[in-house]
Amino acid sequence: MDRQALRDLLVRGFAECEDYSFEQVEAAIAAVGGDNLFELDSKKAEWVVAHVEHALGVTTPLPKPADLQRDQFATLGALVEAIAHALDIH
Amino acid sequence: MSIFVRANDVGDAWLRAYRALLDARGRQIVNLAVSIEQPLHEDLGVRAALESTLADLSSRSRGTTWHSVHTVANTIFPISLYRPDQPDSAKRFFERAGTVSQLHHKRRHEWGTYIGRLIQYDQPDGTPVNQLERFLTLLNGDTNWADIYEAPLTYAGENSGFPATDVAASDLQLIGPGDRRTRGGPCLAHLSLTSVDGHLHMTALYRRHAYLARAYGNFLGLARLLNFLAHESGRQVGQLLVVGSHAEIEDAAPVSVLTKLSNDAAEAQGAIRPIEVATRPMGASWRDLELPVADVPAKTR
Predict the structure, then answer these.
(1) Please, which of B20, B77, B101, B177 could form a disulfide with B224 given CB 3.0 to 4.6 Å?
(2) Which residues in chain B have their CB less than 8 angstroms from residue A32's CB?
(3) Model ipTM?
């Protein structure tokens, strides 16, 4: 999996949580100015992390917001970065 | 020494109880009962004063993590997972919260969150029960449902056999008989809900209630939860009563800081607003709900 695929997986997770379509979430991300300006609160970030763990079937738990600094999960871009680091995806 | 505090809103309740604790010997009270008449309102001035102090403590302390009021409230009811405008909004909330709860279950040395215990409480045989869903089923069922009245400290959904009345109540367990944690574990032990005249009321029992780090967020989280249950059962929100069998102001800050917080909060009091009870629009900022950046003196930077 590359970084773009991981990023899209997070967006799909967010869309599933919100009951919106992937395209609707992408539009909302674009409207606020991109991944690094699209904010999540800790619980929604937890949901997205759980979604990624389930989708990828990872055996080692990924970092959740309580394991991270606020600026590591406050935006979609930051959360992609944190999970990519944990999964060693470049 | 029991103390009863009657307050209008969440912020007023926190401040009145905090001041009672500040005056109490050892800054602790056995059986501190706090009644909130309007739990759907809070005082943003009081909240800001508290969070400013917490941010300051956070910037100075090592090893102690201080959370925002919103983060604490999220452990009881995470508003970002609730969209009341949706069809099957309660069912979808339970699904989302259940997914998040699983994230905690997979971690060792974690007891989870209160919302996790409310929707996936382990019965003695190991099967989980959604206590909130059961309560909504009762509330939304036959209007003459006093026969399924629940008694305190029983398992969710068990009948008490009380005779039919127009008053109904239920109890939700968060700490079971086998839970012997001391610190670092759950402090909210029990919730009791009562439906009278179309209003839903809540009583919460804390075995230990920390007023610096937790109480405001807990009041807010309980108010959010009460709103959820009332909304999903077509009722009005009633009163919230929070009892701390052992309430305290933690020994985490000098008395001068604790006193200053009391004065600052009293001075800022009056910014009364409705609490947030549901998620924000997609793409909205959440940053304002985090602890502010502390104003640390230059010599300590």
Answers:
(1) B77
(2) 283
(3) 0.89
